[in-house]
Please model this.
Amino acid sequence: YRTAAVIPAAGRGVRLGPGAPKALRALNGTPMLIHAVRAMAASRHVSLVVVVAPPDGAPEVRNLLAEHALPERTDFVVVPGGETRQESVKRGLDALPDSISAVLVHDAARPLVPVDTVDSVVDAVREGAPAVVPALPLADTVKEVEPGAPGAPEPVLSTPVRARLRAVQTPQGFDRDTLVRAHEQVAVSGEGATDDAGMVEQLGAPVVVVPGHEEAFKVTRPLDLVLAEAVLARRRA
Ligand code: C5P
Model:
């Protein structure tokens, strides 16, 4: 039962401010992507990591992987990404060898996910779940609104019961055939799917949630960089 991790890292990261593609920004001197690759390779189950690079950045990413010490038991492949996260994940799936039967999809933007979280996702897939998502309960109450112009008041449509909501993280784990089928059969409009498990739900296959971890947060805004560096400093202390 071989498991691969696909890491979509082709996003520009505009919400983080101007500069290099988000995955290539440094956290404590090491690119976020390298932290994310190490987090996947830290799991003994993961034998292959497929990095989906910015469309014109594959050679640069190959160099980066060569420069940093990575576990010998893990293979690495770099492919160029697409316009949307969904397209980038699809290109990663297309690069998988036949021997792979389970796939993790992990955002480069979640560089600090602990190995125990990765392993619990893999374990649930191995035990037979076609799709597994790590997630946490919400601190904030969430409202559904009718989106208006930026900054303008927006009418509230509903307030889902907070106790039933979960904020989902990555790595999301899948039976390979299920995820490939979702990417082939599910049409997603607009900017594409932001969540692979959501595409599996649309296939009608069951998706389960396992406990996520605070340190699996997504680095999206400038303040998240501060938090990520604080987490790394605490780990080293
Ligand atoms: O933009 P967001 O934070 O939702 O991106 C999530 C992940 O998807 C990031 O790791 C980003 O690099 C990746 N992505 C991608 N290809 C795109 C857009 C986003 O690989 N076209």
